[in-house]
Description:
Elements: E1 3-5, E2 12-14, H1 25-28, H2 32-35, H3 61-70, H4 73-89, H5 93-96, H6 99-136, H7 138-147
Antiparallel strand pairs: 1-2
Amino acid sequence: MATAERSDGSGTADFGAGRYAWWNWPLQQWPWPAAAPQQLSQPINSGWSLVSVNYNNSSAPDIERDVLQQHSYGRQIGRVMEAVSALAERLPATARADKRIADFEALAHEVERIKQSARLPRVERLQEELDALRREDPNAYKQLKAKLP
């Protein structure tokens, strides 16, 4: 901080007080919090896929598109992983010691852990929806409850 004795003897003068205040002078007049949204949530490229099925990368793009409409790549890979896991369980102990099998089993366990952790919030959301339906439309709630096993 730059200070100096005043020539009239009335104390010291602070020459650095406003030194750095000049850069934000236009911002001091702007009501920033009021201009910014309080909550921002928007989908980015909803419905967009990184996968492009065409004649260059598929011998039957129409069939592949039809399959994808009913079974996502995630579902297809999940079923393949379940089948490979079932086969790996039947391997002799010496074959299960192979690093590739161990790596696959670790991946399968991690995927299952992620799926399990995703189920809890879903159950909580369903519970909230059911509670809201019971409060807001008791007749619809009774109809739904009668349909459940």
